[in-house]
From TrEMBL, chain A:
Gene that encodes it: mcsB
Enzyme class: transferase
UniProt name for this protein: Protein-arginine kinase
Ligand binding (ATP): 27-31, 93, 127, 178-182, 209-214
UniProt organism field: Thermoflavimicrobium dichotomicum
One GO MF term attached to the UniProt entry: protein arginine kinase activity
Function: Catalyzes the specific phosphorylation of arginine residues in proteins.
Modulation of this protein's activity: Appears to be allosterically activated by the binding of pArg-containing polypeptides to the pArg-binding pocket localized in the C-terminal domain of McsB.
InterPro entries on file: Arg_Kinase, ATP-guanido_PTrfase, ATP-guanido_PTrfase_AS, ATP-guanido_PTrfase_cat, Gln_synth/guanido_kin_cat_dom
Top-level taxon of the source organism: Bacteria
Family: Belongs to the ATP:guanido phosphotransferase family.
Source lineage: Bacteria, Bacillati, Bacillota, Bacilli, Bacillales
Any one Pfam family match given in the protein's UniProt record, by short name: ATP-gua_Ptrans
EC number: 2.7.14.1
Catalysed reactions, as listed in the record: L-arginyl-[protein] + ATP = N(omega)-phospho-L-arginyl-[protein] + ADP + H(+)
TrEMBL record, chain B:
Listed name of the protein: Protein arginine kinase activator
Originating organism: Thermoflavimicrobium dichotomicum
An annotated GO BP: stress response to cadmium ion
Location of the UVR domain: 135-170
Record flagged with keyword Repressor: no
Lineage: Bacteria, Bacillati, Bacillota, Bacilli, Bacillales
Length: 360, 173
């Protein structure tokens, strides 16, 4: 596979568009959980019941496949994918790790631009996910709600006047909504403000995680901030609150960037170029270091300190250097040591390609 | 999916065994996997379910009356899917939507702790909106029917009865 071809597959179409506040907010995501009335939740469903859910969503899609958001969509069964292919979908945030690993009857309906994925037989029968670049939570919710309306034309969802949409886990009850943003906070990390800021976010009822969800490490100063409460507030209220907090975090991060630039511009420029040097020339690099170096260079791009690369190349690399992608590019399974070598090579090649043929 | 070994518990463990190049894949529940012995189980791993179950099982009981209620709700069983409150405590997930009705009385303190609220205020499905209207109209018609019967206006009562039947059929659809 050529590098150009690989990049084309690696980067979802929705990621190529620049969203609002995209120097700090990489993406906005809204996910809603729904279950079909009259069928047990996936945890307890038999194979035939689980297959019925797959069939029902498949048929709904077949009937309406000419709808604009479903045109050229793909219906993929987890059982048709190799573990590596599933991992790549997880690394692109198109399916959850749970759907990839624990759902023998799992499936996903994926829009062509990969902004929409409808997961089937995950923890709930249906999980609608919409991804938008930058800070666009309202748009993501509108889209998710629109898809919800579409599915509701075909089936009856488990709903209770008091409890709202019934979900497998009571932590999703009511609206079933999980809205989240992925934010890049390198300057706050540099001035050591994150240990103070992150607990405050938790105190206002939001959750902070690493980029690959629950329990994952925050790599490259990327954080995922999401709502916790799903019951007792409307979807709009939930999104407003998250958006409000994110706007404040953006202000803090911008302020920290200005301060660093004002007080230690040379040191910052030095750090950015050192990281760029390592990315452009290293022969072995683990994912933790690579993410940190990419984070440094990305900050340099956002602050106009470095002209050799563009923000979009940095975004691309943050996805492409993940283990699943590296193995897909290599066309074979790789142990961690081999991956570190391949990762360094991939980054070098990509940066070289950029120098010969700048994308912006 | 249910564990193929015991057919009772959800299969939460997926493992792949490779012996001399022969690959076998299996889905099992925790108990059966443990019994088989060749599957490493992650006893000490942190999971959200464990966190949730820990705060279900250590509910403080302030009076004897309450602690009796705790014993009772642990033996409560959902008639639709067969899940007990104890099992819910272990998995942290309900088996079906009827569990919400079965365990309703014990749900409120838990929901208050998780969400700080107990009543949904968000989106309502279009279908339910319609059904909700029909349910309210049915209640009104039933009251009127009772009044007509009492007043011995049987011809009127029969008309209302037919209306009620039609609405009930509509609801069932």
């Amino acid at each position: 596979m050529s590098l150009q071809h690989f990049i084309k597959n690696a980067i979802s179409e929705w990621m190529r568009v620049k969203g609002p506040q995209s120097d700090i907010v990489f993406s906005s995501r809204v996910r809603i959980a729904r279950n079909l009335a009259g069928l047990p939740f996936p945890t307890l469903s038999t194979s035939s019941q689980a297959e019925e859910v797959v069939r029902m969503v498949y048929e709904a899609w077949q009937k309406d496949s000419d709808l604009p958001f479903l045109k050229k969509a793909a219906f993929i069964r987890m059982s048709d994918l190799t573990p590596l292919e599933k991992r790549v979908l997880v690394e692109k945030h198109l399916i959850s790790p749970q759907l990839a690993e624990e759902s023998p009857h799992g499936a996903v309906l994926l829009s062509q631009d990969e902004a929409i994925s409808i997961m089937i037989n995950e923890e709930d029968h249906i999980r609608i996910q919409c991804l938008f670049p930058g800070l666009q939570l309202e748009k993501a919710w509108e889209m998710a709600s629109h898809l919800d309306d579409w599915l509701e034309k075909h089936f009856t969802f488990a709903f209770d006047d008091q409890c709202g949409y019934l979900t497998s886990c009571p932590t999703n009850l009511g609206t079933g909504i999980r809205a989240s943003v992925m934010v890049h906070l390198p300057a706050l990390a540099m001035i050591q403000q994150l240990p103070r800021l992150l607990p405050v976010i938790t105190q206002v009822g939001l959750a902070v995680r690493g980029i690959y969800g629950e329990g994952s490490e925050a790599l490259g100063q990327l954080y995922q901030i999401s709502n916790q409460v799903t019951l007792g507030q409307s979807e709009e209220e939930i999104i407003d609150k998250l958006q409000g907090v994110v706007r404040q975090i953006i202000e803090h991060e911008l302020d920290a960037r200005r301060r660093i630039l004002h007080q230690s511009a040379l040191e910052l420029e030095d750090r950015v170029y050192r990281s760029y040097g390592i990315l452009a020339h290293s022969r072995v690099i683990d994912s933790k270091e690579a993410m940190q170096r990419l984070s440094d260079v990305r900050l340099g791009v956002d602050l106009n300190l470095i002209k050799e690369v563009s923000a979009s190349v940095m975004n691309e690399l943050m996805v492409m250097i993940q283990p699943g992608f590296l193995q897909q590019y290599a066309g074979q399974r790789l142990d961690p040591e081999e991956r570190d070598v391949r990762r360094a090579k991939l980054i070098r090649e990509r940066l070289l390609m950029e120098n010969n043929n700048p994308s912006e | 999916m249910l564990c193929p070994e015991c057919g009772k518990r959800p299969a939460t463990i997926h493992y792949t065994k490779i012996i001399n190049g022969n690959k076998t894949e299996q889905y099992l529940c925790e108990v059966c996997a443990h019994e088989k012995g060749d599957v490493p189980t992650f006893e000490n791993g942190f999971s959200f379910q464990k966190l949730l179950s820990s705060f279900l099982n250590f509910e403080p009981s302030f009076s004897e009356h309450e602690s009796r209620a705790t014993v009772k709700h642990q033996t409560l069983r959902c008639p639709t899917c067969g899940m007990t409150y104890n099992q819910f405590g272990k998995f942290g997930r309900f088996g079906c939507s009827d569990c919400y009705y079965t365990f309703r009385t014990h749900l409120e303190p838990m929901l208050r702790r998780i969400h700080g609220h107990t009543t949904h205020r968000g989106k309502i499905p279009e279908r339910t909106k319609g059904a909700l209207k029909i349910r309210r109209k049915l209640e009104l018609l039933k009251e009127e029917l009772a009044r007509k019967v009492q007043a011995e206006e049987f011809e009127e009562a029969a008309k209302i009865r037919d209306q009620i039947r039609a609405l009930q059929e509509q609801l069932e659809q």
